[in-house]
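Team,

Forwarding the record for the chain on the shared tracking sheet. I've put the sequence and predicted structure together so nobody has to dig through attachments.
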Amino acid sequence: MAVNRHFIPILALPLFPVLSSGDNGDEFTNNLFSDLAPMLALFGERFAQQFMSQSMGWLDHIIMAMAPLGILTAMVAAIRVGGPSWLKAIVGRARENIATAEIELMSSTSHEVGELWNGQTVVRTLGSPEIQQLVFLEGSNDGTGYGLYSLSVAEAEEYLCSTFLPTHTQPTGDLEGREKPPEAAPNISLNLHGGSKTEDLCFTALCGVLLQFGVLAISGLAVYHPVWKRRFLKNGQPILGYAYPLLSIGTVILVAGMMICSAIVEQSTSETKWPQPKFRARVLWLQKSHTVSDQRFDAFVIIAQEPRNVILTSKRSNNALVRQQIASNRFEAFTVAGVVLSLVGFVLQFQALRGLHWSASISQLAAIFLMTLLRAWVRRGLIVEPSAYRVLDGYQMDWLALHMTADPKLW
């Protein structure tokens, strides 16, 4: 069928604005950034939650705050954990159970949240799991325990000595007469990889600082350098004077707000280290066949593949004194401050990027992409899987005793 020749120019009309504005690229890249920002917040939700759930110190907060991904997720997470009731109502979490926030955002386990092996991977689930953690201390056989201990027994026998991580303040005061909290489920994922290494965290935090402030340096050169400022124009005109100061202020405010939001989530748990320099330790778990939250879990003996120099436990800060501290007005004020700073910083940064040359937007997006890769690298321990052996329910200890003596490759 022949096409009317007068119809072809009509089809081409929508292309003329694109072609006319394509020379400098400002309109295209600014629109790209505007459309991509909410997509980053959307698709960065699970990634941000995964990173925050393994945070245990200020290095993690710095990494989270530099060229951040999932800004809205971090804000909502801080509100869910430590925000006041009116702020929780705004984000639709007014009646949320703390266990729901714990399973998604925290590194801890409790009597309401546990970790189990489903036959393929370690999963976090709501409910009280039937699983027992044991530690095999090679060379500590006293003739009674054969080197197998629970953490409490190993500490009582002075094979292990617990130390609280320095970022957490343990409750002080007279706890006599207070109700003893229920026994928490053991941590599996933390002891499969031992947490992120300090040297990896330092390297990633340094890279984050260099990337984020490198974006500011490049943007500043494009605005103030005598040669560059004549090349990096905005719609053929010099960059307006407000844009770069607004970018610098917005970035600093956003970084501060994100660090506070990350710290709020991290402070909701209490981590404990159990160093054991004397013995070679292997961590294992005996899982019974049972149902939790309508999910069926079979009986397994689960063994960490590598020996551990430090055993980690992470518990929800649900002691009465800690709950009182978390619910205090000061803690809620920090949460509100972190949310407000993050929101204001993002708006200022976004408006500033709109006023700068399109290269500033591309630089920020590149920094976000690189930091996403670095965050995934520093959390690479999450993909470590244990050695899991399916056993008959009720015979976990029998299986373990048999294979400890008959199978030297078990460890």
